[in-house]
Fold this protein.
Amino acid sequence: MRWSKYFLQTVREVPGDAEAISHVLLTRAGMMRRIAAGIYALTPMGLRSHRKTERIVREEMNRSGALELELPILQPRELWDESGRWARYSSDHILFHLRDRKEGEYCLAPTAEEAVTSLVRAGVTSYRQLPVTLYQIRTKFRDEIRPRFGLMRGREFLMYDGYSFDADAAGLDASYGAQDGAYRRIFERCGLDFTVVEADPGAIGGSDSQEFMVLAETGEDAVVRCAACGYGANVERAETGRRPAPWDGETPGALEDVETPGRGGIDEVVEFLGITASRMIKCLVYETESGPVVAILRGDLDVNEVALKNALGVQHLTLASEEKVESTTGSPVGYVGPHHLSGRNVRVLADGSVRGAVNAVTGAGRRDWHVRGLSIDRDAGVRDFLSFAMARSGDPCPRCGKPLSIARGIEVGHIFKLGTKYSTAMRCEFTDEKGETRPVVMGTYGIGVGRTMAAAVEQHHDDDGIVWPLALAPFEIEIVSLNPADEAARRSADGLYGALVKEGQDVFYDDRDERPGVKFKDADLLGFPIRVNVGGRALKDGKVELVTRSDRSIRAVPLAEAVEAVRALRHELAGPIEVPA
RNA sequence: CGGGGCGUAGCGCAGCGGUAGCGUAUCUGCUUUGGGAGCAGAUGGUCGCCGGUUCGAUCCCGGCCGCCCCGACCA
């Protein structure tokens, strides 16, 4: 493809609304353009990388045995009412919905569990027809609270979504495992440095789930990892081993009141009493759809609200207002303690961080007073401990006890063991060997195509632009004609371009009437892995320059050998995991 | 949902009660030709929308829409 006949405009200035480097570079390279908040156009150049990403997903899914199909994007409310997700997604304002001329309600699908389940329920009646994994790669819609980072969190985006149907849990394990393997191959082929972590299943529902995280500073998620044993989890889901506590080994002292005038906050009490925050026990009052709860944890820790929601089995969790705190606990905000809550009509949950606590400081249950010497067992009578404190860097690994580290990651893929949540709700059942009717056991899987492409840019760029992995580059090779005004030089460039095209190479040809500097800048910005400079001083010796974008190495080769040299370099960059077309 | 900010040329921005400017991009000419060239000239704007104040509004006021950022309470 010749640039002179292409539709491509690079821009020098950084777009004002771009925050993430991938957004900046993809926009500057002319590969995408914003149409509205979270809604983007892909230019021909941008579409090429997007399609290559999509193609890798499709190839690996087909190889794994999954079958591609197409489900509707426009879906009727009735379908969503069957699973109960219409109400839930509507209340979260995630769903784009609309009405037809007959006032029927529809949504633009953010995912397709209901549609695929209704399809399978109509077709599958026997265990003999299982297992089966179906997938599609189609546009999805989510009315995100805050779309941002360009392709990373859009409201309209291309997503792979796969669904497995099995007769039992062992079958699900196998289907899930096949997806896991396909995911690993996909992200490897995309040239990404990724990690797989345990995750919270969230609104989709289900039991086990794992996220595929591309490590990058712009990542929206925090992931906890243990370098020693390989444990990894989204921070929302992460557990920790037992943290050393200041009261370890101490003998319980007497409970005594201590006046703390005007000091309701942890930091204020810590300073006033000259203690550490870890010696304190704090009580947070939350409101949920099933009533108020008090969460008890150590003073230096934060609540992991996702973990707390799961522990409580609730969907909504917000900190209570001051009035609600008082009416629930009988104590003003800042002075709630775990020992004066018995008899109150409120659920009390304690985090493991306060297990065995003695000589702790906490609220006395009345304004301007705290207590010292609190023993959690003796004074508060707490017996059951859950785990809902947010993991911190340096906390002990839940498996091996070595220190955890926290990094940022971009969630490019997610796999869930769904179980029978949808198949039960929607009566997607089959008859087993014994003639009994059972719900199918489902798994659900997703990969953000545009997000994966953007993640590749996050991981592969430098000050001058994108450094595409070969597999995702819009074109693998670019020929730069240095002085097209010179007839002989132009013919050489044309000739090389023609020869590469003839042998099927993926080549872009900058034949514009521009100065070399402009072309070099654009070449770096667009990030084609291989560049061939034709013209100028090298051509005077009958040579062209072969430039590798990733390491900026330059090698002069005779024009006559250029095709072979490009082929060899391309082979070298492709590495061992290339899959034939 | 709350707070803050911004909507002026394709892009980045300035401006101001008297009908609009800079950089860049684009077009033309000349010069130039290995890392976003120089000079000269030119094109390009319902100043987000609606209403109000005013002799006069891009500017002031009100409303709406759009967009960006931060936050969503850790007692």
About this structure: Chain A has three domains: 47-238+406-457, 256-386, 475-574.
